[in-house]
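Look over this today:
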Amino acid sequence: MKFALVSHHVPPSVTGQALVIYRMLHDVDPQHYCLVSPERHDVKNASESPSQFLPCSYHRLPPPFRLERGYRFGLRRVREGINIPLAVVHHSRRIANIVRSEDCNAVVACTGDVTLLPAGYLASRLTKVPFYAYIFDHYSYREWADPVAAFWAHRLEGLVMNGAAGVIAPNEVLRDDLQKRLGVKATVIHNSFDIAPYEMDGVVNRTAVRASEEIKIVYTGAIYEAHFDAFRNLMAALTKLGNRNIRLHLYTNESDQTLERESVRGPIVRHEQLSMTEMPRVQMEADILFLPLAFNSPYPDLVRTSATTKLGEYLATRRPILVHAPRASFVSWYFREHDCGIVVDENDPARLAEAIELILSDAQLCRRVAANAYERARTDFSVSAARTAFTSLLGLNGEPRR
């Protein structure tokens, strides 16, 4: 059994999706798969990690043919509406040729570029092999900013999902959404991570903090429309708490100018994004880990069904996690369901301030939810569990390479 995995980002790219793919396939025999992507990995890229190349065949999808005329007289949408199906056909033929040359028995296509999922499906039909859809984020909801891409995504989604031999979703809320809207039964494979750095001896215990010490609320990762109002609520909550020595430490590549423009201001210490090897220490030294999602964003359904790739990392820290996200979102559901964090699912800074006070005053509560979180990290987000579920779905034996 051999499969072609098609993804806009593949290892050694440092995107969350590429990292999940790397972790899942790292110990799979490279004779069982090849990678297909529009990215070029035959030239050095400073943002990539050379150690995260997978020992398999890499294939690049060249840019598809495009109609370049048609900007005038309001024809841009018409032109782009033609370019998307042209790209699907172009990519599908290339993927089909790769499937034949590599003697693959299946095609796995991931969400990312709007054209790749249907191109992978069409390639599977051309080569008469099974097709598997890996839905890292919601295929149609994610195209909210581009009306033409959204038009095609909504029309192709049902065909692609219902024609798949298997569908993978990274969380239960997205799984249930696919079942409700499309009648598709998806397999949940949570975004896995390497738990080893979080299992070191001497886990930091900062549950009881002296009044004179700084209290560190930590957030690691990107900050954008899916987060802004949750951060504004946090800063308002800190104001309500008065002169407590509490600071928000942000480890992000987002600029100070962006944060200021979005009125995310107050006792903030911004750090540059750190490497994966440095991040566990930062997370485990937090007094509170903050996990936000916006209550008023341009894409509420995408927020509701999203699964951040750092969720497993947060769970493994054995630190108190403060979730501030809409009630219907996956992250709010997960932390309530498993009692593994403090959830504030109302758009209310006052409730957020109360939650911070509760975390700082109730050591027994913090120990309980932190222990539950660590157990969920080991159960739901382990690399071995993700790999076993993935290889089982595809009919591989799942044994690691020798």
